[in-house]
Amino acid sequence: MSEDKIFQRFDSIDEHLAEHDRRFDAHDNQFDFFAKKMLEHEDRLTSIEENMATKGDIREISNTLDTLVRLAQKKDQELTMVTHGMRRMQDDIERIKPLIGLT
Asked: What is the DSSP track for 58-70?
């Protein structure tokens, strides 16, 4: 082989290597992008984990709400019974008034 052909061959190889270098640079940029995105997502997941309610938290809230609803229902029933009792007493008072002269 002549020297010119050898140099041409080296030039061709250099061009191929330069193309591979450009591809590797592009891949490096893509890897950097993905690494940054993974860190962002990791931060977001950490924030979500710190702020989200667990099943235990939801169970505790649900139990508390159940207790409050039972108390409200009990008070409502008591109020209904007191109202009926007052109505009966008012009726009794209205019947007694004429008998004692308070009409």
From this structure: HHHHHHHHHHHHH
Contacts 24+ apart (CB under 8 A), 51-55: none
The residue among 80, 13, 74, 78 whose CA lies nearest residue 21 is: 13
Confirm if 103 and 97 have CB atoms less than 8 A apart.
yes
35: nearest Cα among 27, 45, 47: 27
Residue 1 above 80 pLDDT?
Answer: no
Distance, in Å, from the CA atom of 9 to the CA atom of 11, rounded to the nearest integer, reads 5
Residue 52, Ramachandran bin (φ over 0: left; ψ between -120 and 50: alpha; else beta): beta
**pLDDT digit string (tens) for 42-56?**
989 998 888 899 999
